[in-house]
Amino acid sequence: MLGRLCSRSLLNAAPFAVRRALCAEKLPPRPSSVTMAQKGVRYDGPVVRSGNVLQKACATEGCTKKAISPTDYCSAHGGGKRCVAEGCNKGAVGSTDRCSAHGGGTRCAADGCNTGAVGSTDYCISHGGGKRCAVEGCNKRAKGSTDYCIAHGGGKRCAVDGCNKGAQGPTDYCTTHGGGTRCVAEGCNKGAVGPTDYCIAHGGGKRCAADGCNKGAVGSTDYCSAHGG
Known about the structure:
Order of helices and strands: HHHEEEE
Strand order of the largest sheet: 1-2
Radius of gyration: 24 Å
Largest sheet: 2 strands, antiparallel
Strand content: 5-15%
Structural class: little secondary structure
Number of helices: 3
Distance between the termini: 78 Å
Low-confidence stretches: 1-5, 7-11, 24-39
Shape: globular
Number of strands: 4
Mean pLDDT: 79
């Protein structure tokens, strides 16, 4: 009788605790934060929850993203397929062979824009794609798994004691304390700006739109400080 009860679809749809109480000897142990089964293979190690599923976590200490099969790391830490563009080690996006910066994945639907679309949206960050900051009046992108942009406390913070700036890229530090990509100009250790390999002083980032001016544009404006940015 107990066997017939445990096989009924109605009972199987009941909460786990109820099924466990009635059919203890017929149910496997519930997956924990340290043990789970993946494709029939027992796995003892760190896991992360994705919806109702426990998945293998990235092997990098302190990282809470899921590992990309068959590697032990998330895309940010070298896991999964890499971009085929020469000199690029970023993760390839979707079914393509390139990262977003080199044309992989879905492109932004905004007219004339070829930047990669973000998340499940059809637009890049500049055109409103991705999750936005939850602070009223702020339209910047929310960082990581948080609901806020860097300026409003979202994302990973700098590991230097007393610093509350956002950590850059896969590093644990803000740009001021050595995090993120550094300028490739000889002898320069400033942070590289945007998708470029240089700091503002060495030509990196967006330049001032004023005719004949090559200074760096300030913030989200198109001009340097001298020209109203």
